[in-house]
UniProtKB/TrEMBL annotation:
The species this protein was found in: Streptomyces filipinensis
Signal peptide limits: 1-29
Gene3D superfamilies: Periplasmic binding protein-like II (3.40.190.10)
UniProt keyword list: Signal, Transport
Name of protein: Sugar ABC transporter substrate-binding protein
Segments traversing the membrane: none
Cross-referenced InterPro entries: Bact_solute-bd_prot1 (IPR050490), SBP (IPR006059)
Region (Disordered): 31-52
Length: 459
C-alpha cells in the first residue's frame, strides 16, 4: 500500500466543473475565426502578457524526454525552439517508451539520463523521487509555478511536501467526440445521461453507422472509460478509496461500473470491428476512422480527452462543425470530470534544467502550444484566446474556472505496474474484459490480484 501522502487530496468534488462543461459544450460551439479571436480579448485568470525572465545559457545542452509522438511531439518542439532562442541553449527531444519509469531506469543505469522528463503519472513522480532520480524545483521555477497554478495543480507535483513537478500539460478526459454529419442523418441528439447515450447509439446504429470506435489496442483509453463510469456512478469518495486501494477491486461498486460498461462493450454491433476489431484499434486510428469516409465512416463517436483534436487535425474534418463534442454523460447523479496531465521533472540539476522548468511553468511556453491545438494547459494565466477554436477555448475556460474541483486520472495515481504498463495490470485486465464483457467476476479477480501486487510493492 502506498503512503497517504502519495494520493491527491485536494480535488474535492466534480460538480462545479461538470456544470461548467455541460453549459460550455452543450452547443458544441463552431470554430471562431482568427479575426474573432483577436478581437474578443478574453483571458483567463487575469493574464498580463508578461514574459518570464530566463538566464543566458549559451553553450549549454539539454535533453528532455517524453512519450509524445507525431503532431504532439512536433508542436512541443516549437516550444523548445523558443526556449533555445531566448537562452542560447540547445535542447534535444528524446522519444521515450511506455512505461517511462522503465525507460528512464535504463537511461540512468547507462549513465545517460535526460536532464528533464515529462512524467504522465503522479505515481511516476513519486517513484522517481523514491529512487533518488528527481531533483526539487529551484526558487525561480517555484515562483513561476505559484504565480500561474492553482494550489491543487501544484500539490499534484509534490512528494512529501516538496515540489518536484510542473504540470505543463493537462487533459480533460471526460469528453465524447462525434461526427456531426452522422448525427444529423440519424436524427441523434447529444446525450446528457448514460441512458440517453445508449439511445443515441441505437439511433446511429439504425441509421446504418456503427456507433463507437474503442481504442482497445491501447490499454489506457479503457482505464479512462472505466474511471468516468465509476466516478459518476460510485461517487468521489469511493473513487478516492479505489485510487488508493483502500477498497478492493472486488468491491460491488466495481462490479456495478463494469456491468454498466458492458452495456456498450458487450454489444458487438456497437463497436467498430466488434470486440476483436476494437482490440486491434490503436488510439489515433479510433479517432481518424470516426471522421473519414464521408457519410459512411467506420464509427460515429469516439471517447477521449481534448487532445483528440490533434488526431482530428489529420483528417479533413473541422472541429466545431464536422467534429463536435459533448461531456461524458452522467451515469449517476452527476456527470464525471476526470483530468490527467504531464509534469516536467528535473533529473539532472543544473542552471539550464531549472531554467527549462521555469519556462514550462510560464504562460509563455503554454501559449505557444495552445495556439497549435490539441493541447490544454492548467496554467491559469494563459489567455483563453490562445486556443485555436471555440470548442477548445470553452474547455480551457472551464478547466481554469474549476480551480481544484476535479478528480485526477485514477490509473495515473496507481503504481506504474498496475496503472501504467502496456500489456500488464489494469491495461491488460480491461482489454481482457473488453474481449469478454460477460466475465465480471473474472475481470474483478484479475484487477484485484494485479492491484494488490503493485500497491504492495509500490512499483
Amino acid at each position: 500500500m502506498r503512503s497517504k501522502s502519495s494520493t491527491i487530496r485536494t480535488h474535492r468534488t466534480v460538480t462545479a466543473l461538470a456544470a461548467l462543461l455541460a453549459g460550455a459544450l452543450a452547443l458544441s460551439a463552431c470554430s471562431s475565426s482568427d479575426k474573432d479571436r483577436k478581437g474578443s480579448g478574453e483571458k483567463t485568470g487575469g493574464a498580463t502578457g508578461s514574459t518570464v525572465s530566463l538566464p543566458k545559457l549559451n553553450g549549454a545542452s539539454l535533453e528532455i524526454a517524453a512519450v509524445w509522438t507525431g503532431q504532439e511531439q512536433k508542436n512541443f518542439k516549437q516550444v523548445l525552439a523558443e526556449f533555445e532562442k531566448r537562452t542560447g541553449a540547445k535542447v534535444t527531444f528524446v522519444p521515450a517508451q511506455d512505461p517511462i519509469i522503465n525507460f528512464l531506469g535504463s537511461k540512468i543505469a547507462g549513465g545517460q539520463p535526460p536532464d528533464v522528463a515529462l512524467l504522465p503519472q503522479p505515481g511516476a513522480i513519486r517513484q522517481a523521487v523514491q529512487r533518488g532520480w528527481a531533483k526539487p524545483l529551484g526558487p525561480e521555477a517555484l515562483k513561476e509555478l505559484r504565480k500561474n497554478y492553482s494550489q491543487g495543480w501544484q500539490d499534484i507535483g509534490k512528494v512529501d511536501g516538496k515540489q518536484y513537478g510542473v504540470y505543463y500539460k493537462a487533459a480533460n478526459k471526460s469528453l465524447i467526440w462525434y461526427n456531426a454529419k452522422v448525427f444529423e442523418g440519424a436524427g441523434a441528439k447529444e446525450p446528457k445521461t448514460w441512458k440517453d447515450l445508449l439511445g443515441t447509439a441505437r439511433a446511429v446504429y439504425d441509421s446504418g453507422v456503427t456507433p463507437f470506435s474503442v481504442a482497445g489496442a491501447d490499454g489506457w483509453p479503457l482505464t479512462d472509460w472505466f474511471e468516468n463510469v465509476y466516478l459518476s456512478q460510485a461517487g468521489p469518495e469511493k473513487y478516492d478509496q479505489l485510487a488508493q486501494h483502500k477498497i478492493k477491486w472486488t468491491d460491488p461498486s466495481v462490479k456495478q461500473a463494469l456491468t454498466t460498461l458492458a452495456q456498450l462493450w458487450g454489444k458487438k454491433e456497437y463497436l467498430a470491428g466488434g470486440q476483436d476489431g476494437a482490440l486491434q484499434t490503436e488510439f489515433p486510428a479510433s479517432v481518424t476512422q470516426t471522421f473519414t469516409g464521408g457519410d459512411q465512416p467506420k464509427s460515429a463517436m469516439v471517447y477521449e480527452g481534448d487532445f483528440v483534436q490533434v488526431n482530428i487535425g489529420e483528417t479533413k474534418a473541422k472541429v466545431g462543425t464536422d467534429a463536435k463534442v459533448f461531456p461524458f454523460p452522467a451515469v449517476g447523479s452527476t456527470a464525471p470530470v476526470v483530468s490527467g496531465g504531464d509534469a516536467a521533472v528535473i533529473l539532472k540539476d543544473s542552471k539550464a534544467a531549472q531554467a527549462l522548468a521555469t519556462f514550462l511553468a510560464s504562460p509563455d511556453a503554454a501559449t505557444i502550444q495552445a495556439k497549435l491545438g490539441g493541447y490544454l494547459s492548467p496554467n491559469r494565466n494563459v489567455a483563453v484566446t490562445a486556443y485555436p477554436n471555440a470548442v477548445q477555448q470553452k474547455i480551457a475556460k472551464a478547466l481554469i474556472a474549476s480551480g481544484d474541483d476535479f478528480r485526477f486520472d485514477m490509473s495515473d495515481q496507481a503504481p506504474q505496474a498496475f496503472g501504467g504498463t502496456p500489456g500488464k495490470g489494469e491495461w491488460k485486465d480491461l482489454q481482457d474484459f473488453l474481449k469478454n464483457p460477460a466475465d465480471l467476476a473474472g475481470a474483478q479477480a484479475k484487477l484485484e490480484k494485479d492491484a494488490a501486487a503493485a500497491y504492495g510493492s509500490g512499483s
